[in-house]
């Protein structure tokens, strides 16, 4: 997996986005984190559940001529790998932003997150979380900014992750988004709905203050965490230990602990276990062979003590591994 915020090249295959093909508000629920990740149209995503209990996700999504608008709810804390279609910008407005991490950085209050299309980024979100999202084609945003006289520093907008904005402008945009996703904002004209939303977005961008650049030391911590994840996934049939991670990454145990706590808000041991449990769940739910057993999957993800695996699995996901296997996709 590519490190967080790495951008795809033009050779990467993306389906053509369907923005503009429908005018209905689409609502969908899911009871598995990774299943929920795939419900958002034209995104490349995978989710790992972090906190314990049954998962419930809800999505309300609306497509306008040059935009995609959505509200997403998740009941459990989730680690998200996200990438939106090219030639677009994503703007994310959490309803409660103080506990959101984007590429390891806390967004803070009165913030809006932004990422360009075809550029992978990572979110870590808390339980009982809701976020509004806007994806707008770059050309449409540029034209609207020109018409309104709003000057946008495109290089800065592409390079930043967090913008601190005027609280009243942010509240106004959230109110506009809420209305659109409940009843279309009382308007059936898609072009007019888009114009209203773009105007609210531009008003917010006019008040923005871009977060300071990421320090070199924080970038190093991000790279260490990304390399640790790559190592775990590349050798998922082995129970990789913290000492082995330290040896492979050429860091001390204290440094590794600090990197994980600073970037993800958890210890390396917690992270290793969560990644492997989520990998096992994905394997169980996507299994195509009828002869596959829970024991096979446990072993394939480095869990050799089956009773402990079953207990940890049930605590995290609120169901047994065998129940997940019975719910697999067909």
From TrEMBL:
**One Pfam family, short name:** HTH_18
Q: Which organism is the protein's source?
A: Albidiferax ferrireducens (strain ATCC BAA-621 / DSM 15236 / T118) (Rhodoferax ferrireducens)
The top of its lineage is: Bacteria, Pseudomonadati, Pseudomonadota, Betaproteobacteria, Burkholderiales
Cite the SUPFAM superfamilies for this sequence: Homeodomain-like
Q: Locate the HTH araC/xylS-type domain: which residues?
A: 226-327
The protein here is known as Transcriptional regulator, AraC family
Any GO MF annotation of the entry: DNA-binding transcription factor activity
Assigned keywords, A-Z: DNA-binding, Transcription, Transcription regulation
Q: From what superkingdom does this record's organism come?
A: Bacteria
């Amino acid at each position: 997996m590519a490190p967080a915020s790495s951008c795809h090249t033009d050779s990467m295959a993306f389906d053509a986005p369907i923005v503009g093909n429908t005018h209905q508000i689409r609502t969908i629920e899911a009871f598995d984190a990774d299943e929920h990740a795939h419900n958002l149209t034209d995104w490349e995503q995978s989710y790992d559940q972090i906190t314990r209990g049954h998962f419930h996700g809800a999505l309300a999504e609306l497509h306008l001529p040059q935009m995609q608008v959505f509200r997403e709810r998740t009941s459990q804390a989730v680690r998200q790998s996200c990438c939106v279609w090219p030639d677009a910008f994503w703007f994310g407005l959490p309803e409660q932003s103080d506990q959101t991490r984007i590429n390891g950085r806390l967004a803070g209050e009165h913030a809006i997150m932004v990422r360009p299309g075809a550029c992978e980024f990572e979110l870590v979100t808390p339980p009982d979380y809701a976020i509004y999202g806007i994806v707008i084609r770059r050309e449409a945003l540029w034209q609207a900014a020109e018409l309104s006289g709003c000057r946008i520093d495109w290089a800065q907008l592409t390079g930043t992750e967090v913008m601190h904005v005027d609280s009243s402008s942010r509240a106004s945009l959230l109110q506009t988004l809420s209305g659109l996703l409940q009843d279309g904002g009382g308007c059936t004209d898609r072009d007019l709905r888009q114009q209203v939303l773009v105007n609210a977005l531009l008003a917010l961008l006019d008040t923005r203050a871009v977060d300071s650049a990421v320090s070199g030391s924080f970038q190093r911590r991000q790279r260490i965490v990304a390399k640790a994840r790559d190592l775990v996934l590349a050798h998922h049939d082995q129970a990789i230990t913290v000492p082995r991670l330290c040896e492979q990454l050429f860091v001390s145990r204290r440094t590794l602990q600090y990197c994980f706590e600073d970037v993800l808000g958890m210890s390396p041991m917690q992270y290793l276990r969560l990644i492997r449990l989520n990998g096992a769940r994905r394997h169980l739910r996507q299994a195509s062979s009828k002869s596959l057993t829970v024991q096979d999957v446990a072993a394939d993800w480095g869990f050799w003590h089956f009773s402990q695996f079953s207990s940890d699995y049930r605590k995290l996901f609120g169901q047994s591994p065998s129940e997940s296997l019975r719910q697999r996709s067909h």
